[in-house]
Amino acid sequence: HLPFLTGQQFTAIVSNILASDLPPDLKSAFEEFHSSVGQPYPYRPVAVLDVLTRHVQYLEKAPGMAQEARSLRHYLSRTMGGGMVEQPGSNVPYWQKMQEAGYFENHDYYGREHSGLVLFGNDDNTIRDYTSLTPDMNVVVIGCGYGRESTLIAPHVKHVYGIDVSDLILDKARAFTASHGIDNFTAVHAERWQDEIPGGIDLVYTMVVFQHLTRALVREYISGLARKLTPGGRFLCQFCESSQGSYNAELKTHEPNVSWTTDEIRDLIRSQGLQLYRLDSGHVTEDAAWHWALFGY
Residue 6 in 3-state DSSP? Predict the structure, then answer.
């Protein structure tokens, strides 16, 4: 059996702990425990899910613990329901601030590497690798930006609805598409798309965007746009998985890098009553992969 510690011995142990390099939450627990020694202990019920959520949040901020945090969140989402690990919230207001500051113009890739807002890319052919583009199709582009993807897709379809976060960026999209002779493009504000996008959508397309949105917002887009699909309509969405990414986007002004595993993508699609038709993965850097998912009813 262990010997009893005197108060002085216990105080010395706690002092050593507080002076150590142990994690702050552990030191705080010992300090709180030490301060209450000798006092009546009132029982307080513990909300286990809240404790586990706080632990995951701690792991996400701890150096080298991103993978463990992601694994724990995924485990909890599958065993205890997604509510505790997928907090509600939209980071649209923070993207509005970033667009006001000239996000695309100042971006190392979009603005500087390509010398301004110019037409580049291969989105129309990327789509053709998964499904057809025909003149009778209505397409939604989630996160249309300044109109680059929409300009590539629009010549091959009936109409393109481009969603983005503010009138500022949508005005750029209107001007960019018009300057390339596109007259079948409608810009749609991210806070009004549920009302402004009609039914009869044949394809929902997005690239890069989902890694920049909260998980709740991604789920809202898929759930809401699925109800606007035609029979046989499809989603073609690109997700990012990165060891440097986070589980969710923080509600603050920053460029998130939200990481989705293939299991999480499958769970997301299944939870909306949709069928996954194809899921392709490929590394874009040593620590990041892109997952392309084709799904629908």
Answer: coil
